[in-house]
Amino acid sequence: MDHIKQLFPWAGGLFISAIFLDSLRFKFTSHPTPEHIFTTLRDWSGIGLFFPAGPWVIGLGELLSSILLIGLPLVLFLANKKNLIAPSQFLGALIALGIMSGAIVFHLFTPLGIETPVEWANGEPTEFSSALFYAACASWLFALIILFLHRNSIAAVKSPVSK
User: Fold this and answer.
1) Which stretches are transmembrane (predicted)?
2) Is 71 inside a domain boundary?
3) Average pLDDT of 142-158?
4) Which domain holds residue 136?
5) Whole-number Å distance between alpha carbons of 57 and 99
6) What's the predicted TM-score (pTM) here?
């Protein structure tokens, strides 16, 4: 069981990071799929910040989460600062849980729906898939498990400031 507790945050963090980092090429290049998602949410909610700012804000959050889940822990491991790995992964998982909670809620309770366009021709969607929704659900679950496994890690970090 100890091996699972040690390995799952790395494996789950790698899965979440793969999903997040792969999506950045769409969010940061004005791809029609994130534009569709965030304009649908903008039009439904009346909140103008959903698009064009939404893909950038969410993309930056996903990038930060990925850095905290995998990038920084790898650096800390190599620098022999292993006591800081769990708090980093905890914060990365917390960000991922927040982002994916929003994604799941928006997919389920807005006109966005579970199936989103994945293929486009001449500015029109030609193929739809529920893969984004299921990736969000899996990422949410993995983030929750990482949070549970590292639930005591934040309190365990000693402050470098002495009294």
Assistant:
1) 7-26, 56-78, 90-110, 130-149
2) yes
3) 87
4) 2-154
5) 10
6) 0.92
